[in-house]
Amino acid sequence: MYTLVTFAVRVSSLVLPGIVPFGCLFIEMYFILSAVWSHNKIYYVYGFMFAILVLLCLVIICVSITCTYILLNAEDYRWQWQSYISCAATALYVFLYTIHYFYNSTQMSRAQQRQLASHWSVSFVKPFITQSF
After folding, report:
1. Sequence-ordered alpha helix ranges (H) in the chain
2. Which range of residues forms the domain containing residue 47?
3. Number of domains forming the structure of the chain
């Protein structure tokens, strides 16, 4: 039976580990999104993006191992899904950042533009969810 404190600890252990990998990715996402949504900017630093991807993979692996270790140390037998979701929480932050970037950094307002932006946001999030497997 869950109490309110147990629920709050479980929710925070699912949402907070996504901050660390997102912090690794935050600046690079700004440059990628500005290249996607701006017609006069070209993204040409693919080697640096690959280095960020490798660093992101390492950070997600370390966060997953740390979260699993903490859960196993607490003798929590429900560690399997929580260790997956704690790393997939990065996708939530990436999705929220793409929506924030769309509304605060672009001047698009029509329904078709919003639909295109939502499809691009989902396509940015898919690799983070599949990488967590």
Report:
1. 4-15, 19-37, 46-73, 79-105, 111-131
2. 18-131
3. 1
Q: Is the dihedral of CA 42, 44, 50, 56 positive or negative?
A: negative
Q: With contact defined as beta carbons under 8 Å apart, do 132 and 87 qualify?
A: yes
If you search the block for the tokens 């660390």, which residue do you land on? 20
Residues of the chain with pLDDT under 50: none
On the CB side of 86, CA atoms within 13 Å amount to 28
- Please give the DSSP secondary-structure letter assigned to residue 28: H
Q: Note the pTM of the prediction, 2 decimals.
A: 0.75
What is the secondary structure of 46-73 as a DSSP string?
HHHHHHHHHHHHHHHHHHHHHHHHHHHH
User: For residues 90 and 128, is the Cβ–Cβ distance under 8 A?
Assistant: yes
